[in-house]
């Protein structure tokens, strides 16, 4: 009985915080100068329904240099489900202060983001099981710097979304004369 209870508790804890990793490209620029590199971003859904976004070991890469910045963690992100019917969840924060923490990449000797203290960010993100798009804007007033962090990635473990049948114009899961009529209606401007 104790083993069954322990297994149930472990399963509940696993469901409590679901993490999705997205692999893609991150572009970081300061006052319009920067570059992009491959990156992974993690999005955790917490027990209370909010999300936590983690950009780990991110760097500012330019043709001349590579500067380790650190980890960005944005937590307590409320989900906006207005576009959920289209398969996307949105979240955003405006003028929230975060602290960039030290990364753990052994190839980086110095993490510059840890010297900045609290940094005000504005962030927008769109996501579903398959893809994540993140835009972060930071205005760092002491150095008069506009910092932009943009990430586009996909979940390599996601199952493909429904594609529908080729030729199913009206979306009824059948390819028949009703689709021909739908095309004619579109051409005549009736839809």
Secondary structure blueprint with pairings:
Blueprint: H1 2-16, E1 18-30, E2 33-45, E3 51-61, E4 66-77, E5 89-99, E6 118-127, E7 131-140, E8 145-154, H2 177-187
Antiparallel strand pairs: 1-2, 1-8, 2-3, 3-4, 5-6, 6-7, 7-8
Account of the protein in words:
This protein has 191 residues and is mainly beta. It contains two helices and eight strands, in the order H-E-E-E-E-E-E-E-E-H. The protein has helices at 2-16, 177-187; strands spanning 18-30, 33-45, 51-61, 66-77, 89-99, 118-127, 131-140, 145-154. A hairpin with a 3-residue loop joins strand 6 (118-127) and strand 7 (131-140).
Q: Characterize the main sheet.
A: 8 strands, antiparallel
- Rounded mean pLDDT is 82
Radius of gyration over C-alpha positions, nearest whole angstrom: 22 Å
Distance between the termini: 62 Å
Number of strands: 8
Strand content: over 45%
The assigned structural class equals mainly beta
Number of helices, where a helix is a run of at least 4 consecutive DSSP H or I residues: 2
Low-confidence stretches: 1-16
Shape: elongated
Oligomer: single chain
Helix content: 10-25%
The string of secondary-structure elements, in order, is HEEEEEEEEH
